[in-house]
Amino acid sequence: xxxxxxxxxxxxxxxxxxxxxxxxxxxxxxxxxxxxxxxxxxxxxxxxxxxxxxxxxxxxxxxxxxxxxxxxxxxxxxxxxxxxxxxxxxxxxxxxxxxxxxxxxxxxxxxxxxxxxxxxxxxxxxxxxxxxxxxxxxxxxxxxxxxxxxxxxxxxxxxxxxxxxxxxxxxxxxxxxxxxxxxxxxxxxxxxxxxxxxxxxxxxxxxxxxxxxxxxxxxxxxxxxxxxxxxxxxxxxxxxxxxxx
Length: 245
Ligand SMILES: Nc1ncnc2c1ncn2[C@@H]1O[C@H](COP(=O)(O)OP(=O)(O)O)[C@@H](O)[C@H]1O
Ligand SMILES: [Mg+2]
Prior knowledge:
The chain contains 9 helices and 10 strands. By secondary structure, it is α/β, with parallel strands linked by helices. The strands form 2 sheets. It has a 6-stranded mixed sheet, with helices on both faces. A 4-stranded antiparallel sheet has the order 2-1-4-5, with helices on one face.
């Protein structure tokens, strides 16, 4: 279980994250839904423990253990995995080398083929060079395959459909299903209703705070009502909550 307690992050005298509290259980998919600029990617960096973001206040607990002082690589060792909004780049690596972490992960051919098929790629891709011969969308698919193969305790997917080509919604659903079946805590960050609907539960993020949580359909309807006309788009609130509270 991952718990986020009263997390605050200040930049330029603004609360980018503002007393953000949320909890996430294993084997469940959580959507974090919110407009551009509400703090979604910032939350993913804080959870991952990026050096640029480790001055946050509040607590993050993984299975009851405080991880706030852990570096990004220590958090990765604990099984927290982030798929960035922008697909990563890997110079000179083949898909197979990338998926097996340069041979460190012992994976059967069947496992590799089966995982690639979940993301809609065939085994011919294994020998292709990730950077030189794949489109941005294909790289994103390879990255999602890689995440499934390392079997994370916590998987954070930041706008996995934001892409360069249009990612298939069914493919994202298959990835979420696999991660859920493997017992990962799955957090999918999105501004799209149809992605939020794929989750078991959803949070609505606004001005760096979770302002609602519940059934995805209910949160999607709040999102429509509250966020379409919201004054805080691209503008995190400062102190004390929403202006129209
Ligand atoms: N290093 C920073 N310095 C100042 N403002 C920042 C910094 N990083 C992010 N922000 C601001 O924080 C807000 C949230 O950004 P972000 O987390 O990227 O939003 P989202 O992913 O929801 O679109 C935005 O208003 C952004 O401009
Ligand atoms: Mg973002």
